[in-house]
Write a structure and sequence with these properties.
The chain is mainly alpha-helical. It has a three-stranded antiparallel beta sheet, with no helix packed on it. It is rod-shaped and about 115 Å long. It contains four helices and three strands. Helix 2 packs across helix 3 and helix 2 packs across helix 4. The chain starts with a strand and ends in a 9-residue tail after the last helix. 44% of the residues lie in helices and 7% in strands.
């Protein structure tokens, strides 16, 4: 025995018995009734099972010909909801445009700041290179500071393996530096890749 289901008329073209009040027999939209078995093929898109999940891409159907208070109220609510949704979409688009512009401005400012920092580092390196060398060994802090001043774009500051050049670090510190001292002070020091 087929299970009973409640269906609602959602489109025109469903007919029942003609009466004096309804000579065509067309069932009004929104009418609900129980039925068993499958929905007839000709009724597809004209009735919906009450309580069933809406189909993919389903839209709310409003009877524009329904001039009752309920029909007008439904159309009004839907129009207001659509207006609200359109406003949210416009606000979202405006916010994305503003955030994109801010991000582009920040990227430009960051690139300018990095160029300035690189220029200052180069100046510091040149100033430090000019001092009289010492025979004292460089401290770990001095070596770390010197490695931080190395220029990723300057091949003379790095070995072929991408390690800090001992001679350059020694020149910047103005003291004696060994590979072992660099590895102890800055074990993760590698030439940055762009």
């Amino acid at each position: 025995m087929a299970k009973e289901k409640l269906v609602r008329v959602i489109g025109p073209g469903i007919y029942g018995v003609a009466t004096a009040e309804n000579p065509t027999g067309e069932v009004p939209l929104g009418t609900e009734f129980s039925m068993s078995g499958d929905i007839p093929v000709g009724w597809q898109g004209r009735v919906a099972i009450v309580g069933a999940e809406p189909a993919e891409g389903a839209e709310l159907i409003v009877n524009d010909d329904d001039d009752s208070d309920v029909g007008r109220a439904r159309r009004e609510v839907i129009a207001k909801a659509q207006e609200h949704i359109d406003g949210l979409k416009a606000d979202h688009a405006t916010a994305i445009t503003a955030l994109t512009a801010r991000a582009e401005t920040a990227e430009t400012a960051l690139a300018t700041a990095n160029e300035h920092i690189d220029g200052l580092k180069a100046q510091i390196v040149e100033l430090l290179k000019g001092k009289e060398p010492s025979t004292d060994p460089a401290t770990a802090d001095e070596i770390k500071a010197a490695v931080d001043l190395l220029d990723a774009k300057n091949g003379e500051h790095w070995t072929k393996a991408g390690l800090p050049a001992v001679e350059v670090v020694a020149e910047i510190t103005g003291k004696v530096v060994t590979r072992e001292a660099i590895e102890a002070a800055a074990p993760d020091a590698k030439r940055p890749t762009e």
